[in-house]
Amino acid sequence: MSKRGKGKVSFLDLHDKTGKIQIFAKFDDLGAEEYGFLKKWDIGDIAEVKGFVFKTQMGEISIHAKAVRLLSKSLKPLPEKYHGLTNTDMRYRQRYVDLIMNPEVRDTFVKRSQIISSASVRHALQRARRGLQAPHFARAVSQKTDRRRLGARL
């Protein structure tokens, strides 16, 4: 989740595995207490929003929030959106943060898992594994071949 806005209107961007949607939250619609909680939310918090869908003046599809609820508070703050994770070592150590912050990395991860789980690749891997599961037969055949070669030399 990212947020912007001042005064009595706030815009939040909620992200999930299907994409992103903008939330339009107004002080008059939510009330003082609920809007006060909303202002304390951080990037990375998980939220629930109830309202109706409309199109803003800029043409972006948004949800006009009538009720908001914080489901889970992020314990550690995410890196800022502009710089993101630039240190390669940190990207590998904190893979979960890299998947949250970089949509390209997340798309690659999803596509890779879909390819591996596809039926044709799974079938080919199972067929290859079956061939590798019987190494004692290959050993027995090579021992017979070696005996024949030795017998022919004697």
What can you see in these coordinates?
- The structure is a single chain.
- The protein has 154 residues and is α+β, with helices and mostly antiparallel strands.
- Helix content is 47%, strand content 27%.
- The chain contains seven helices and five strands, in the order E-E-E-H-H-E-E-H-H-H-H-H.
- The protein has helices spanning 27-30, 32-39, 88-93, 95-101, 103-117, 119-132, 135-153; strands at 2-4, 9-16, 19-26, 46-55, 61-72.
- The protein has a five-stranded mixed β-sheet.
- A hairpin with a 5-residue loop joins strand 4 and strand 5.
- Helix 4 crosses helix 5.
- It is elongated and about 95 Å long.
- 6% of the residues are buried.
Provide a quick synopsis of the model.
The chain is α+β, with helices and mostly antiparallel strands.
Sequence-ordered SSE layout with sheet pairings:
Elements: E1 2-4, E2 9-16, E3 19-26, H1 27-30, H2 32-39, E4 46-55, E5 61-72, H3 88-93, H4 95-101, H5 103-117, H6 119-132, H7 135-153
Parallel strand pairs: 3-5
Antiparallel strand pairs: 1-2, 2-3, 4-5
Helix pairs in contact: 4-5
Record the strand order, biggest sheet. 1-2-3-5-4
Q: What is the terminal separation in angstroms?
A: 80 Å
> What is the element string, with H for helices and E for strands?
EEEHHEEHHHHH
- Helix and strand content put the structural class at alpha+beta
Uncertain residue segments: none
Give the biggest beta sheet.
5 strands, mixed
Strand content: 25-35%
The helix count comes to 7
The overall average pLDDT, rounded, is 77
Query: So what's the overall shape?
Result: elongated
Percentage of residues in helical conformation: 40-55%
Radius of gyration: 28 Å
Secondary structure tally: strands: 5
